[in-house]
Amino acid sequence: MKKFMFLLIGFLVLLSCTKDDDPISPNDPPPDEIITAQNIFDFRNANLNFSHKIFKEIVDQDTADQNIMISPISISIALSMLNNGAANNTKDEIKTVLEYQNVPDYCINKLFLQLAQKLDSLNTIIELDLANSAWFDNDFPVKQTFIDVNKAYFDAEIRNLDLKINASIDTINAWVSNKTDGKIEDVLDYSAVGAEFFLINAINFQGFWKFPFDADETENSVFHNEDGTNQSVLTMHDNGISDDAPSKKFEYFITDSLRAVKMPYGDPVLRETGKDVSMYVFVPTGDLKPFIETELTTENWNSWMGSFVPFADAFPAYEFEFYFSMPKFKFGFDSNLIPILQALGMTDAFIESIADFSFITDAWEGLFIFLAKHKSYIDVNEEGTSAAAVTVIGGSYGTPPPEFEIDKPFFFAIRDDLTGTILFMGQVYDPQY
User: Fold this and answer.
1) How far apart are CA 14 and CA 10, in angstroms?
2) Of 54, 102, 130, 391, which residue is least crowded by CB atoms under 10 Å?
3) pLDDT per residue over 212-228, tens digit each?
4) Which domains does the chain have, with CATH numbers?
């Protein structure tokens, strides 16, 4: 799989966006201006803000107390590819949902390209494959400029198919399965037949713990549900007796309202300072949903990320013996993003008579987004984490179709620590394995 990796940028030098060295965007020819440090900062915060707000909206709209996981960067990439074809208010709404109001149009694609280039260095830490594609019906008159910009900045694979037959759906599903090593299957069903185009991002992640758990110590333990009942779940344990115990290599953040742990991925021998990719697990003192609704903000997040300390500083009175446990869990999640995006303010794109995708095709009148779907999978065990997600956006003409123990529901995120990109985030109410 060709690696196309994305990470939020923390240390980019000023970048020149000139007409001589940049592909031409269909709606934003690059002016003779530079991408400044402020542009980069705004882009980084936009991605963080989008990550938090879309996760909150999904938690709010989906059934309460269920396992949820999304890849915010996957959704952002798919919508950013769509943004290259949007115009007028349709475009403004997409940018607003993505929190790109303060990021000039000429910067967005170039910054995504820089993200791809920066992520190559993570190959020694984790395996992270991102693949983008654009699928067009054989008879759909797509503009070459829309194809070119998504190929140039997003490395999108361009495919033409007869999207009016079932076999095309099978082909797309096979592509997604291949790009996610079989973790995401059947993202589309035959109800999607008749589309004019699909824009797809697929992300595939494999990270082995830098300090793995001993599988022989895994056993059933009590998990406390928020309704007062308990359940027995398969739980990884570390007694923390030796100095080399995994739990003594983790970092911790503890307040009156939460307990949190930072668990890094990668080979401890090949560790490169400042290039960790880590899972952060937050266990609120109270219930999980109010914590996500009120505490999960970009301001708090940035504060939390600077508050983790080594074991010795977090637990100075427990130098010799320490008990740590965490449930194994794996689950899949499937979400219709249309009501989520509508609630966040992106409405025109889904209305046949209003949507303006005139930079995708000259025959744009009546073209609208009939499908926006996100599907994900995660497996957390003694060795590490395997995860994948896919975002599909479909366009069509016509009318749209209808101690320290992690022993209670928790929120988690997988983040690159160099640049702050949130790769995955989720909540776990039922950690069955």
Assistant:
1) 12
2) 102
3) 999 999 999 999 999 89
4) 15-208+330-402 (3.30.497.10), 215-328+405-428 (2.30.39.10)
